[in-house]
Amino acid sequence: MDWVRGKEIGHGGFATVHLAAPAGTCPSGLPPLMAVKSCDAALSSSLRHERRVLRELGECPRIVRCFGDSLTAERGGGEELYNVLLEYAAGGSLADSMKSRGKPLSEPEMRRHARSILEGLEFVHSKGFVHCDVKLQNILVFPDGGDEVKIADFGLAKRAGERLSKGGKRGGVEWRGTPMYMAPESVNCNEYEPPSDVWALGCAVVEMATGRPAWGSRAESNAYALMIRIGVGDEIPEIPEGLSEQGKDFLMKCFAKNPKKRWTAHMLLKHPFLALDRVNNDEEVVRDCGADEFADSSPRCHFDFPDWVSSQLSGTSRESGSGSLSPSSEVDSDQSFVTEHAALEVSVGSSSATDRIGELASQVRPNWEHSEDWVTVR
């Protein structure tokens, strides 16, 4: 594939990023503008690894696309570079975007971005990989798609279940990723599995909400002191006070110290915090996460419940015409409508449904002619 290198737009510890445009001989289907990540071919193991991971993952709307790789001779042939052609994000990283605006994100913006990142992570985890470096610098913004965000930089990604080798002459562990976003199990046990990506996502959401790193700005100056805070004791990043109750609970699910108790990306996508959608003006509505399952059987009126079964309370639950139904109450058949941690106050009037309906009967005929009092309902 032929392409033309443009101006530099970024650089990291081992690679430089430039704009790139397809040459006239390049096959169709490529965008008119791309980003090319390049490094010295002799030092390209990490970039080649990223290319392999992206190839195995395949395409996902929440992951930056890869268009291929190539070797090029630069500076008169004296330097050989390895290049990976990627989708260009005109908005830069989410960290850059927040820095330029100079203030934290609104809660609807946080929800939208958190949902997009989780959709990407759910895909990555379903493919058997762990990103290992989720942070705002690796979340890219695409303004043309309405500030859509996508996950980038898979240079540190690994296979789930793959144990990292201990390195160094002293047998030290191989820390990978950014200390500010590391999970307790990564610090303590050198463990990088899908739950560690979820912890990092929680840190990213805190940063979206406050404009500051989850562990505070001073934590950047001493990585080892930060590792002790993360790995020892019960301390977690501070939950922003201004966040809604749903948002606070969402973060608590991300910051469970025990990775086995931490919610997965799939579970978090169904959390009430992400079920709040921003609609016209500043109105907030709640979206039923499971609405699609019941769309065809949604009742049109109060009689349209084909699966409704009336259950009678046992005689022990009645007392002077009313009673309290506790989790130990009995109901007919195997159907129980009492949850483990709730008690339902019920009122029991007549002894049968026929008697109760009879009490509703009246000798006065209803007047159906006042149409202005009717309301059309679905």
TrEMBL record:
Q: Which domain of life is it from?
A: Eukaryota
Compositional bias segments (type: Low complexity): 314-336
**Which PANTHER family does the record associate with it?**
CCR4-NOT TRANSCRIPTIONAL COMPLEX SUBUNIT CAF120-RELATED, MITOGEN-ACTIVATED PROTEIN KINASE KINASE KINASE 19-RELATED
What are the entry keywords?
A: ATP-binding, Kinase, Nucleotide-binding, Serine/threonine-protein kinase, Transferase
**Composition bias type Basic and acidic residues, residue spans:** 367-378
Protein name (database record): Protein kinase domain-containing protein
Query: Boundaries of each Protein kinase domain copy?
Result: 3-274
Q: Name one Pfam family in it.
A: Pkinase
In this chain, ATP is annotated as bound at 37
Report the source organism: Eucalyptus globulus (Tasmanian blue gum)
> What protein family does this chain belong to?
Belongs to the protein kinase superfamily.
Q: Which InterPro entries match?
A: Kinase-like_dom_sf, Plant_MAPKKK, Prot_kinase_dom, Protein_kinase_ATP_BS, Ser/Thr_kinase_AS
Q: Does the keyword Nucleotide-binding apply?
A: yes
* Region described as Disordered: spans on this chain: 314-378
Q: Which GO terms describe its molecular function?
A: ATP binding; protein serine/threonine kinase activity
